[in-house]
Amino acid sequence: PLLASAHESSCIRLWSIQGNLMKELLPFSEHPSGPLTALCTDIFTKILLTGSKKGHIIRWNIASFLEDSQSKKKEIKEELCWRAHAAKVVDLFIEEDRNVVVTASTDGSVRLWHAMTGYYFGYFGQARKFELSDTTRLILPSDVNNFPAIIKEESKHTEKKKVKYPLMLDRDK
């Protein structure tokens, strides 16, 4: 069992069921996501999704970390980041059977996205049917103009760094 908490500082904290802090993460994507407002995982707890106040969705791979959380080699990797809404994300979930992420925002829209690529399928209430099998069409909602970004940096950059040596005045220098 694992508990995850999202914070205004964009930090994600993973806790053991006993209340011990296991991991602290910060997003590494080029677009700052802002304060986190929503979290969810898939059924098998391999993927963690976060939604932010600025409308971004970030997908994290947590499977290898959960297999052996004590090992330093097993890290959590930020895999994908995309702008889903122009306003705050208030809820999201993964529908594994269709490989779809559903997001809701304070802008009043509920949207569908491909879970692995972040491609936009559409919004609830649209006139056309959702075409969930075609992930090659690169379309975006009218209020979003950035395509999903695949994160290639290592997850070690996402960890919150701890200062070992405080700044001290050196009068000789």
From TrEMBL:
Residue stretches of each WD repeat: 82-113
Keyword Repeat: yes
Top-level taxon of origin: Eukaryota
Keywords of the record: Repeat, WD repeat
Residue ranges constituting the IP5PC-F beta-propeller domain according to the UniProt record: 27-114
Pfam families hit by this protein: Beta-prop_IP5PC_F
Keyword Repeat found: yes
InterPro entries xref list: Beta-prop_IP5PC_F, WD-EF-hand_domain, WD40/YVTN_repeat-like_dom_sf, WD40_repeat_dom_sf, WD40_rpt
PANTHER family noted in UniProt: WD REPEAT-CONTAINING PROTEIN 64 (PTHR44324:SF2), WD40 REPEAT DOMAIN 95 (PTHR44324)
Protein name: WDR64 protein
Organism encoding this protein: Eulacestoma nigropectus
Gene of this entry: Wdr64_1
